[in-house]
Each structure stands twice: as structure tokens, then as C-alpha cells.
Backbone:
């Protein structure tokens, strides 16, 4: 299993490297796909089959398809303004042939990249402490408990109050989410809610704009039709 | 690791199982194409393929030149496909153009791995005895695995369309991904009701639960209908064959493909049909079981009834798929979308809530 774990990790890292180095968006997406499968392999090596399969289902099956769907709509014509917009660009597309709008060279270590590095480190530290502070029954790296004891949420009279669930199985994940970390789960759902709200807000604004444009066009059209009708009569 | 405890014989038996299951499907597909063409011909008052048969060799005796009802037509088609020019458009993305057919076929074929086509049988005696399950990959989240890997196949379709550098191909690719996103949600919800009823994600346990509570088609009729409609969309077959709609897109995502690369798409479509029919059989038609025949047979010869019953059920469903394709006209694309989002998803969701409420009410 350790060999399998190492292999999956290497695949995941290789995919991640592809994501950040490929300039053609579709290749980056394929790298992401490889990385998802590698991560699923890591979960499988840890005996968490349910999590592994969910990883493929949610990320490789649904999320990446959505990304791909968006990339299909992205134009592959060389953009007139702005350098290095290579969404959907072919290999024979030469970025050097496109005139950069911003001729001034940026300093290598700009404020944004410094901030991004800092933020990444902070998230890494946060993740480390989150994993470090996990209850001991979630196991440590290398030694995963095959079964864990949980308190039944809804025990019937006469039945034992606890039961054993497999680590990483559907029951195990269910207990982890709704019994051990309900607060974290709710906070995450709040985050998704905020994201949905943001998306709605963005599209609503553009919808209102396009409606105004449509109305303007319709008014013009009506005026034109009336004019045409008048001349015909 | 317990690898050392597994005997060589057991490894051999399990390898054989994989080869037989995969080989059986691959051998079925040419006949399936022949059946599809014959059924289409009958429906349209034609004769269908009836000429390609045995060669006129003297060694065959009286059988030489026998037409064999055109059964060898698929063989001739495959040979033709193999010898065709392997054409790649000049502006195509070469790597993805080659990769896409494999990306379609492999995930679909993988999905069959978790489907139980029988209970299994003990081999050997005493110490060295081992149990061979009639299921290639026994995983605790079997239902999820089947849907997870088959949903990856859409990447292949989309990349095929994109890498061809052809507007029609690209349209087919966009349609494929839009269609898959729309129909998978309803499909999952339909399956979730079945899973909730059986209380397990293992496909073999779902089959065994059906032997006790009745087949899924009787206990979950709504889920069955939703799943069936989604299965047509999932396999890209009429009335939902939009990614390759001939009058609109010429051939859709595989427009620029020829030779065996096209053959692989074709193979993937039929393999997908077999997988979806197998899933339907497993989830709703009692899998390898039949009332009156033991679901867990205790000797080898009885255990062979499982695969036979399973194949018969799958075959009947395949005939239904073929008949529907040649009976119903193609929808319009917006009709497909509104059917998916406005009808099937609410129905499947209501079915899910109803099942949950019923489950809670019955368990009190």
C-alpha cells in the first residue's frame, strides 16, 4: 500500500505541476484532472474508498466538466489587446506576435506575488494545525484506524449507544460531518452560499444591462418599423 | 500487505474472470450492431444486412457461400475500419486528438468493473479453497464508482470536439458537456432513492435487498423511469443524440475522426449502452437473481445461472434501447434542457424526499 500511496502522490504532484506550467488552458485542465485522480488514489491507499470515489465523482466528473464547458466557450482567436491570454490557444499561436498593452516590465517580486506567497504559507500552516489538532481516533499519518467507535445519533431503546464504523466509508464520513464537525460543515455551506450570491449578483447586473440594451434596441427597431410602415402606407 | 497469502490459482481464477467478462462484452458488441441494423431495417420496412456471410471456399463444403443472415457484416465493417487511412486534420491538436478516443472508451469500460453479474462460487477444497466473486472490483462504494468513472468519459467527447479544430465538432462537444451536466444530476437523485431504500452503496447488497423487498422497478417506479430517460441521454442515443445529430452537426464531436479512432468512439457508445443496461438491471431488475432460483447458489454449476439470468435481462434492455432509438424522433436541444432541469430533476427530488419520509415513517 505504501508503494501505491507514493505512486498516487507523485501522480498528484505531477498533475499539479502541469496545471501551473501549461500555458494552454485545456492542457492545464488535463493536468488538474490527473491531479484529482492522484488525490483519489491517495485516499484509496488510506482505505477511505468512499472519499476516494467522491473525489472522482465531484471533482473529475462534475467540477472539471464545468471548467471544460467554460473553456469551450472561450475564444481561441488571438486577442487584440492584452498579452498572454492563452485560453484555448493553439500551439502555433505565438504570444510574441501579439503586441503587449503594458510595455513596462514588471518587477519580478511584485507586491501581489509576495502577498500570494504569504497567503499560501498561511493556508498551509492553517491546514497543518487543523490536521494536527484532529481527535486521535482520526488516526495519524501512516497509521489509520480501520474502524472507529461513534455515538449513535438516534439509538432505539434496547440497542447499544455506540457502533463501529469503517474509516472513510459513507457512514464514517456522515458521522464525521454531522457528529464531530457540524460547525465546520455549516461554515463551509455558508461559504458556498456566499459564492452563489456573488455569482447571482454578477449575472444580475449584466442581465439588467443587457435588458436596457435590448429595450433601447427595441425602441429603435419600433421607430424604424413605424417609419418603414409610414412610408409604405 | 496480504498479497503473499493469495495463491497463484486464485490470481489466475480472478484474472480469468476479468478476461471472460470483458471478452464477452467485446464479442457481444458486433452482434449488437448487427441486431441494431436488423431492428432498424424491420422498423423501416427494409431487409437490413443479409449478404455478408461465409466465403466461397471449397473446404466449407455445402456451407460455402452461405449468407449466414448477414451476421458477418460487423466483421467486414471492422476490417474496413482497420484499413482506412488514419487522417488527422492539419490544425488539430495532435496529442489530444489521439488521446480523446481512449478517454471516451476507458472510463466507460471501467464502469463495468463494479457490476456484479452473479453471486460467486467456491473453488478448491480445504485449506486452499477460495471464493471467486462474480464481480471484477468489489468496492464498498460501488454505485458511486460506476457513476464517477462513467461521468469522466464526457471529457473524452469534449476534447475530441475541441481538438478537431472544426466548428461542428466543437458544437457537438459543447452539447455533450451541457447534456451530461443536466442529466447526471437527475440520474444521481434517482439512484440515491434506491440506495436509501437498500441502505447500502454496494451493488451486490442492493441486489440482495431486492430479493427481500421486491425488485426496484416495483418499489421505486419513479426512480426507474427517471433513470431510464437519463440513461438514453447518458449514452448519447436517440432521442437524445445531440452531440452527433447528423442533420445539424454532420457527425458532431467525431466528425474529423476516421479509421479505428472512430471505431473506438463507436465501441464506446455500445459499451456505454451495455454498462447502462447492466446498471438498470442491477438497481431495478434484481440483478442476477430470479424468484425461485437461489440468489446465493452453493455449487459452481448453480452459480452459473447468475451470469445467464443477468445477461438475459441486460439483453432485453438493450433491445428496448434499440427499439426506442428507431421509434422516437430527436428532440430539440432546448426541449432536452427543459426536460432535464424542469421535469426530471424536480421529479427525482420529490421521489427522494418521499422515499426519505417513508423510510423514517416505517422505521418508527
Residues:
Amino acid at each position: 500500500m505504501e508503494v501505491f500511496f507514493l505512486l498516487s502522490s507523485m501522480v498528484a504532484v505531477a498533475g499539479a505541476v502541469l496545471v501551473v506550467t501549461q500555458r494552454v488552458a485545456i492542457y492545464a485542465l488535463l493536468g488538474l484532472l490527473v491531479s484529482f485522480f492522484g488525490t483519489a488514489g491517495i485516499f484509496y491507499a488510506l482505505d477511505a474508498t468512499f472519499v476516494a470515489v467522491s473525489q472522482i465523482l465531484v471533482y473529475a466528473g462534475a467540477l472539471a466538466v464545468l471548467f471544460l464547458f467554460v473553456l469551450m466557450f472561450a475564444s481561441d482567436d488571438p486577442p487584440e489587446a492584452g498579452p498572454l491570454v492563452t485560453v484555448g490557444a493553439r500551439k502555433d499561436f505565438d504570444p510574441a506576435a501579439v503586441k503587449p498593452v503594458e510595455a513596462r516590465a514588471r518587477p519580478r517580486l511584485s507586491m501581489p506575488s509576495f502577498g500570494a506567497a504569504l497567503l499560501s504559507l498561511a493556508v498551509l500552516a492553517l491546514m497543518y494545525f487543523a490536521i494536527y489538532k484532529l481527535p486521535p481516533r482520526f488516526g495519524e499519518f501512516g497509521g489509520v484506524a480501520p474502524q472507529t467507535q461513534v455515538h449513535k445519533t438516534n439509538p432505539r431503546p434496547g440497542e447499544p449507544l455506540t457502533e463501529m464504523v469503517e474509516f472513510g466509508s459513507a457512514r464514517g464520513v456522515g458521522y464525521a460531518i454531522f457528529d464531530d464537525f457540524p460547525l465546520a460543515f455549516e461554515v463551509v455551506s455558508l461559504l458556498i452560499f456566499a459564492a452563489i450570491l456573488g455569482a447571482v449578483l454578477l449575472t444580475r447586473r449584466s442581465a439588467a444591462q443587457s435588458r436596457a440594451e435590448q429595450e433601447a434596441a427595441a425602441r429603435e427597431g419600433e421607430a424604424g418599423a413605424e417609419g418603414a410602415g409610414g412610408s409604405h402606407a | 500487505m496480504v498479497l503473499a497469502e493469495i495463491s497463484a490459482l486464485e490470481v489466475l481464477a480472478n484474472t480469468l474472470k476479468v478476461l471472460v467478462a470483458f471478452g464477452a462484452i467485446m464479442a457481444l458488441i458486433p452482434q449488437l450492431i448487427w441486431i441494431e441494423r436488423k431492428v432498424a431495417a424491420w422498423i423501416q420496412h427494409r431487409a437490413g444486412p443479409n449478404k455478408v456471410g461465409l466465403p466461397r471456399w471449397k473446404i466449407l463444403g455445402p456451407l460455402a457461400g452461405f449468407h449466414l443472415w448477414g451476421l458477418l457484416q460487423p466483421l467486414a465493417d471492422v476490417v474496413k475500419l482497420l484499413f482506412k487511412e488514419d487522417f488527422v486534420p492539419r490544425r488539430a491538436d495532435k496529442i489530444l486528438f489521439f488521446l480523446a478516443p481512449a478517454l471516451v472508451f476507458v472510463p466507460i469500460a471501467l464502469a463495468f468493473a463494479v457490476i456484479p453479474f452473479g453471486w460467486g462460487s467456491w473453488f478448491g477444497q480445504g485449506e486452499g479453497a477460495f471464493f471467486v466473486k462474480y464481480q471484477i472490483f468489489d468496492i464498498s462504494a460501488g454505485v458511486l464508482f460506476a457513476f464517477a468513472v462513467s461521468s469522466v468519459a464526457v471529457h473524452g467527447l469534449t476534447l475530441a470536439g475541441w481538438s478537431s479544430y472544426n466548428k461542428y465538432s466543437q458544437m457537438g462537444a459543447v452539447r455533450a458537456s451541457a447534456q451530461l451536466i443536466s442529466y447526471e444530476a437527475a440520474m444521481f437523485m434517482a439512484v440515491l432513492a434506491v440506495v436509501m431504500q437498500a441502505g447500502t452503496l454496494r451493488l451486490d447488497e442492493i441486489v440482495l435487498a431486492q430479493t427481500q423487498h421486491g425488485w426496484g422497478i416495483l418499489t421505486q417506479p419513479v426512480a426507474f423511469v427517471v433513470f431510464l430517460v437519463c440513461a438514453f441521454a447518458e449514452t448519447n442515443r436517440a432521442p437524445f443524440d445531440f452531440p452527433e445529430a447528423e442533420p445539424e452537426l454532420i457527425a458532431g464531436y467525431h466528425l474529423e475522426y476516421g479509421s479505428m479512432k472512430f471505431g473506438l468512439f463507436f465501441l464506446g457508445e455500445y459499451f456505454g449502452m451495455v454498462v447502462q443496461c447492466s446498471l438498470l438491471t442491477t438497481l431495478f431488475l434484481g440483478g442476477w437473481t430470479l424468484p425461485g432460483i437461489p440468489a446465493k447458489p452453493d455449487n459452481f454449476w448453480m452459480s452459473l445461472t447468475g451470469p445467464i439470468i443477468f445477461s438475459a435481462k441486460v439483453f432485453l434492455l438493450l433491445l428496448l434501447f434499440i427499439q426506442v432509438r428507431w421509434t422516437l424522433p430527436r428532440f430539440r436541444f432546448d426541449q432536452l434542457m427543459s426536460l432535464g432541469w424542469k421535469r426530471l430533476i424536480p421529479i427525482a427530488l420529490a421521489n427522494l424526499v418521499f422515499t426519505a419520509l417513508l423510510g423514517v415513517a416505517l422505521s418508527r
